[in-house]
Amino acid sequence: MFHGLTPDNCRYLAGNYRGSAFPCLRDYKVGVLGDRRVGTPPHNVAFEMQLFEAQLQLVIKAFAQDVQKAGKFDQKLLLAFIDILAKFLVYFFAIHPYANGNGHSGRLMVLVLLKRFNLDPKSWPLDQSPSYGDAIRAHRDGKPGLLRNFILDRILN
Description:
Layout: H1 45-70, H2 75-95, H3 102-116, H4 133-140, H5 145-156
Helix pairs in contact: 1-2, 2-3, 2-5, 4-5
């Protein structure tokens, strides 16, 4: 999954959190086009990822219970699930836990969660970054519609 993303002598750059005790990662800061909402300080990344994981587990467990109660995965549940996916994808990208490979990892997370509920997206690229940057920024700005529609389109089309 991370083939070709790192120099051969720095493979630790992919798959290890920024702030880890590796050369270059200990103090590795990131930012995206001047958006201060992106890039948890390196020394906080591991803690933020623990929070992220705990929150995601709670939300997915509650959602699975909702699906079980409903007995079927209807349109209302699909839209609620897409909102969960969008929220956690944006949250993951805001932490930006890795020096490289965040896009791959975030898209893999979404794919795993889709498969968890037996949803097979028609188009969800792992290796190529889709053009969803504007949708992610809009979601951060409190306008989730673009990202919701992007994810829904990839599931259905």
